[in-house]
Amino acid sequence: MSFSKWIGASIGWSVGGPIGAIVGLALGSIVDAMTNGNGGPLLGQSEPKRTRQGRYSSRPTKAPKQTQSGDFEVSLLILASIVIKADGNQDQRELDFVRQQFTNMYGKDRANNAFRLFKSISKQNISTRQVCMQIRSMMDHASRLQLLHFLFGIAKADGHVTEDEVRQIYTISGYLSISSRDFESIKAMFYNSTDSAYKILEITKDATVDEIKAAYRKMAKKYHPDRVAHLGEEHQKGAEEKFRRVQEAYEKLQKEKRF
């Protein structure tokens, strides 16, 4: 798939608002780099549309019923660029993680296009609040949880999650209206502490067997891959990891409590 076809595929609300402005600026940079010696676009490429003031339009579009795969993909690219810069250092392992995750989800060609846009987005100064406000208003809760899970994966790619990265992801989760309990649940999936299983299931250590069973049913439903089926098979696969960690947490407590 060509870059121009990829960026126009399956994108709905993300063409407007602050996200649309960020993508437009990134596309402008990419198109400029791809132009020929005469200053015109290469064959098959076209300039992103600009307003009269020369700025990319950020006019919001009508919200679709559900977030499309392309909207999720673009949101992921922007938030990933924010997290990677949180500790003041773009570690190559984190960049490799982003590329590998996109390759696993989308295949090599689509991943290459996404990573090209990602590198251009990473050079911008982005308002975390404005981006998250747009995502919160347009994206369902299950998809926002999936975004958070991916961001922790990026932060952990270099072997550990720094305090700066945790603070940045926590800030993002707050703007996305993700509760502290859900934040701690997903965060615990990336730590091997003694109470990780309890945090993943959002219960305390003094929970009864019945409470553990009830928590498992609740979290299994919340993190079930079918909740993000509308994003496409590629994102369902990513959601399977969260679902698997819930199952592992429950099995660990089954052994610990002997029930």
From TrEMBL:
Please report a single Pfam family linked to this protein.
Answer: TerB
Annotated region described as Disordered, given as residue ranges: 39-68
Which InterPro entries has this protein been placed in? DjlA_DnaK_co-chaperone, DjlA_N, DnaJ_domain, J_dom_sf, TerB-like
Which portions of the chain have biased composition (kind: Polar residues)? 54-68
Ranges for the J domain?
196-258
Q: Which CDD domains match?
A: DnaJ, terB_like_DjlA
Give the protein name, as stated in the record: TerB family tellurite resistance protein
What high-level taxonomic lineage is stated for the organism?
Answer: Bacteria, Pseudomonadati, Bacteroidota, Flavobacteriia, Flavobacteriales
